[in-house]
Structure formats: structure tokens, C-alpha cells
Write the C-alpha cells for this entry.
Amino acid sequence: MKGTSLPPFRLAHQGKTCSDSPHAHARLRAVALVFLLSAALSSCSGIQSALDPAGPEAEDVATLFYVMLVGGAAIWVGVVGTLFYATRVRREPHSERTAGWVILLCGAVGPVFILGALLTYAVWLLPNMRPWTAPGEEGGLRQIEVTGEQFWWRVRYLDASGGVLLETANEIIMPVGERVLFSLHAPDVIHSFWIPSLGGKMDVIPGRINRIALEASKAGVYRGVCAEFCGASHALMAFTVEVLEAEAFDAWLQQRLAADGSSGADGLGLFLRHGCGACHTIAGTQADGKIGPNLTALGARGSIAAGTLPNTQDNIARFIRSPEEIKPGVHMPSFAMLPEGDVETIAAYLKGLE
Ligand code: CUA
């Protein structure tokens, strides 16, 4: 028996070519469907997906999505089923009485019941999806202040009294299993702070401070983005969120608090001489500019220019020479007029900062 029998589909198609078989078409459609489905589903996981939650807030968002999906599917099946019944099963006219019932049930009772149930569920879920913190809880939460700039993220870790412990840019390092309070500011235009794996979005609005508390339940690297159109490089202001075990986080914090940018004196000298320090800060050096991203420990970041380019010495040099080419609308001027060697030395110095 083994090895001698043909699979059923080959028996069915003996003597036929693929193109003239209705089964072949059905199979092609099935393959296309599987392909589309797998393409759609593959985008449901990963470091930037609301459907691959890594924290309690994100789990609520994902659950809400699936509940809404089931509700939407029920409505769709009802509508298409009725359409099918009316056009294929019973095509003759219905009595006025029946029509009245159909309108009442499908047009009023059904939608009110389904939409009412979905609304009730969503409203019931709202309190979980955070008042940013329970009353009195704010003092106990670690606070990170995030400022939406054009087009990057300023990240400041605050101490218990609201003072700045350390500043970084386009990266958030946070401990696993701890709710962290993010205070969101913007100096000029509206952005939206969104880490899909950890929770919902929160608008970042000039003139006010919005707060959102997020917790990561799994260590790992996630990706955050700006979710509100804010200008030419709106799509080029991502950030990474690295969730570390508590001890690793404490070690990182201590290391950063002790950060000393004094190595690579040559590069630092050029950095200061060409005025980079007027806009950028490197902890432990005279560079203390506040306009651009803080570059302390830049070399340890995975990417530069807010998730736009991999963090390599070449890319840093490229960005220094012509930032506008990489990031339209960026406020940093071009430094293409600097001697090539100076740019390379500065880039090497920055890449070496860890
Ligand atoms: Cu910032 Cu869009």
C-alpha cells in the first residue's frame, strides 16, 4: 500500500492540465487566501504590534480588538446572510407584516443589542486602560518625562522630587514588571506617543502635560512611534523601548548616572570646536546644549535619528553632513562644510560613547 497509491487530487486530475480544471482554480484561490491570511497574520506579531501585547494595558487593547472583531463579524454574517436569503433562497415578495418584523429586528433590535453590548464592554474596560494612576499612587511610580520634538523624542528620567536624573533621546530603558509614569510634553506641534506592545496611544500636546502609566510584563526590545501627523518627518520619529530585568535596569541606571564622556579627547575637541555642544549635551563634558537630542552614550543605541538609520559610524557621519537629506524638516543644519576628516573623527567619537 505504502508508496503505491496516488494522492486523491492527482487521481482526479489525470489527463487534465491545470488550467482547464475548476479544482485547480479553487486550489489557486485557496493558496491565494492562505497567502493573504498569513501575510495579514504575520504582521500581528513582533516588536511593534498591538496584537502581540507585552504588558497588561496592551493586553486590554488586544482583547478589546478581538471582542470588536467578533461583534463586527456577527453583524457582517447577519447582513450577508439576510442578503443571501432575500436574493437566492426566497426571491418572491414578502408580506408587509414580515417586512415590518425584518425592519424591526434587523434594523433596530439587532444593532441596538450588538452595538450596545460592544459599547458596554468598551466602557467597562476604560478604567483598566488607565486613569494614568490611582489617586495617591503617583508618588510611588518611576517617572519618565518624554518630550515630542521635531522629529525626535527627548527622554528624561526624573527623581522623586521631579528633578532630572539623566537625559537621553529616542530610547527608553525600563524595568520589567514595574508601572512607569510617562509625562508627555511638546514645545511646538502635536505628536502622539505610542508603544503598541505596551499600551494605547497618548497625544503629546503643546501647553499641557498628558500622563500615561505603562507596564511591561516581558523583558525585550519593543518599538514606539509617533502616531499623529506632525510634519515632514512624522514617519521618521520612532524610538526603542528596552525592557530589562530589575537588576540589569539598576545597573544601567548606575552606569548612566556615572557616565563620563571624557574619552576620545580628539573627537570631543572637534565636537566642541565646531559648536555641536551648543545644541547637544554629552554628560561629563562641556557640551550642554538643550536644543537637540542628548548624545550621552549614543554608541549604545541601536539606531540614530529616531529610529531612521542603524547606528553605525558611517551613518552618524552621513547625518552630520546632511541631516535634511535623511530627515526632511529636521532643525539641525547641515555640516557638509566641515573637513571630511573632522566629520569622521566626530562620528567615531560619538559611536564610541557607551
Ligand atoms: Cu511626531 Cu508625528
